[in-house]
Amino acid sequence: MHNLFLGELNHHCISIWGLKTAENRDEQRKRSTAHTPDMQRTALQRIVTGLRKGSSSMVASVRKDYLEAVISFNNSVLITKSSPTKADLASALAAWVSSAPDGVDSLRIPPPLSYATDHFHISADTAPEPDPLGHTVFSGNVLEAIRGDICAAHLPSWLSKPPATFGSASHGKLKANHWRTVCTVNMVITLVRLWGTASSTEHERLALKNFLHLVAAVDLASRRTMSAERAHAFDTHMLNYLRGLRSLYDADLVPNHHLSLHLRECLLLFGPTLSWWTFPFERYNGLLQRLNTNFRAADMPKTFMRYFYIGAKLRWQMTSESWPDTEEFRTLGNAFETAFHDAARGSRIVEAVSSFGSDEASVPSRSRHYGVEEELNPTLYRALLSYVNALSDHAPFASRHNPIDDNRPLLPSTALFLPWTTHAGVTFATRDDALRNSFLLFRKAGPNDDGHCEIVAGQITQIFEHLRTEGDTSIKEVHLVVREYKPLSAPHQAFDPYQHFTHGMARLYYDEVYDNQHVIRTQDIVSHFASYTYTPDGIDRQCIVAVSLDRVSLTSGSESRTAS
User: DSSP state, 371?
Assistant: First the structure.
């Protein structure tokens, strides 16, 4: 994956868009108006007229490229300054004419070009190279917008936030995972917002479509599941991206581009890149480098393997046993999590993140071992009762608020409220405890029109652990209380650039939530999402961008995400 993260993403930003010099570039290089051959002839004649009248100001009123061409066409005109102004060039021409035997008639005037140009030059000369399209589109203002959005966006704690000085040498060399995040999350937020609207130029829209082909290819290739359809979709996006490089930027392809065209075969043969990329080998190289050898190198393999198995067995025992709910064992559990919890950054934790689908085996949630035991308010209790009864295989529970004497068990009305919980190594928190970990995509209860559970965006307001008894079994589950974000109305959807360009990877919602609350389990979570709020053109209300961080399945249900 270094080929994609440190190779192609890095190459596109630095070599194609000129990231390292963008800070010093204006919004766009100010180009002169293109002059037709007749307009060129008029400008040249004005120089002659001004010289005949002895008016240096009239000569200096002509565009500088014409003055430079006339001086270049008359090699004997003397220029003393290294960076002359138009007035300096006009004065030099006037001085040369005054000393010439035939005056103005001695001056040779270059012929007009046969085509329109924004920079007049002698036909035998080569016109000055314009700024590359990538440098023209990716300006200093765009870089500043990306930096501002990096600071304003909310990313979950398991995703390393790119440096706020992205594009500057001050942050040092970016790691592969930083390139992945900034290009597939932060730059998607900013560039679609800037280049995906009706006011964007054609060059900006083409540059955006080309870049999103690369983003889609990288996203598909680095997912934790793989299929033939997904591998072919990756190849299609990569081919479209490379064709765009040639047609838009006239860029030379590099070895990384060639290698990426062979990746489809590797995906079909070996499956998800997670199982065969080199990140684990590099991680173990780091472990070996930090291992205390006591200068006994021959014992290193035995020591390394012995402690590896000790750690694996201890982790398995701590997570698989049902420990007594006492203060001593809670202290033990907290100490274990502090000492052995996986580092919540880098490629390791990123690739531990999966889609928590209901069709997968439930992974036990580990919550902070303290909270507040409280009575559930009537609204939340009714929502929990309805949710539990819909899932239960046993006789439905009755409400404590409306008991019915039909021998049905009563659902307990108290719960332990928690600030956050972890599920499959990922932290989910309430908006009051850790805002960045409170944004999530989840499956609403009940199928939609196509028979699938609808996936929507929401924010966690409460987390609680609830204990109930079904038959002879005590069930302790962590539930999340989520407020759903309101989708855009049909008229406003036309102003959602993310819907038109990212095809399911991101979309806009109103930055408003419904009054009703959803009670869900961790199995209903799809993933976190990266969030950013702004007021789009054409929508007079603040909206929130939700960029899916699902590493397994496409939340849009389609592999054919194109940016055409």
Answer: -
